[in-house]
Task: structure prediction
Amino acid sequence: MKKLKIVILDGECANPGDLSWAEFETLGEVQVYPHTEDGEVVERAKDADIILDNKVNITADTIKNLPDLKYIGLLSTGYNVVDVAAAKKRGIPVCNVPAYSTVSVAQHTIMLITALAAKLFAHANSVSQGEWGECRNFCLYKGEVTELHSKTLGIIGYGSIGRAVAKIALAMGMKVVACRRHSYSTDKSVKLVENIDELLKVSDVITLHCDLNAGNAGLVNDEFLSKVKKGAILVNTARGGLVDESAVRRALDEGTLSGYGADVLAEEPPKNGSPLFGADNCIITPHVAWASRDARERLLKAAKKNIDAFIEGNPINIVY
Result:
């Protein structure tokens, strides 16, 4: 039997050097590329049986020009970078890794919420910049601090991450409402609402945990923001394309929002900047909510398990 050839197209995202690919090497020859441009895929994977991919585009033309390809494994939950229809036509399973980063993303979401509520960076910067040392009082106010207890958290997208965020928020004494496509929940502490407008009307904090698709691209726009409670906090750890960043900047400048936190942007990396840069009480982190070491370890183990199942003839986590 021919030795398997596994090509990892953009390994640095999941494993910047602190983890090992050794488990994959037990399956055959492994070639790891830290980064791959879209135009380099065919040359680098020309004799690959298996491709592992995070964010490199694998198009129908790419699949057509890889005659040895038998399996595409995603080092992610999302699979929009792969033309799954073309893969299915060739009989190539495309398998993702669901729910590996739920705990990490929930933790990051709550961190952003609490930091924005406390005006954390404004207060911390006032210390390092010497303002506190020059203050006549023992304390220095750099903005209103909001107590989250008894406030209402609105969750748009009540899947595994949304539920994890709700659990933490409830433990903090917050009220939680959620809006999702399927109106069911086993948690009676969370109120499910039928539409987003109803959620916006009551929420002091809003957090996005929905997929990005053609129906909700630009969900957070001027119309959306006109319906939020004045002074609400908005957080996005889902996808940058859900948000019109210019609209959010206007809402921050006008006081409609008191804070905005995001781990995602419309352009990643933001080589052309963002309207959000420089806004008051706005925290942007570089798409790292998912990337705790624990989560990345789970990701690699699950990706290996997916390949094992494929080799055994019973592929799991197929996305089509």
